[in-house]
């Protein structure tokens, strides 16, 4: 399952790893998260790309709330990289 958009796409997810910023990165420290292999999180959340059967759970929140959650998850990953 993608940690950013909470989708399990038919194309799978990949572990995306980034070197941390600053001294930790120079020492080889990294952070990683599972992200849609095709990087189509935005399209999956908005329903503009079919992720396959059972890939998205039915939710009671609005589309805007799903978008905000996706942006927050992405921002959290970036914050870990830059911390």
UniProtKB/TrEMBL annotation:
Keywords on record: Metal-binding, Zinc, Zinc-finger
GO molecular function: zinc ion binding
Top-level taxon in the UniProt lineage: Bacteria
Domain (Elongation factor G-binding protein C-terminal treble-clef zinc-finger) ranges: 1-81
Pfam hit, one: FBP_C
Protein name: FBP C-terminal treble-clef zinc-finger
Record organism: Micromonospora haikouensis
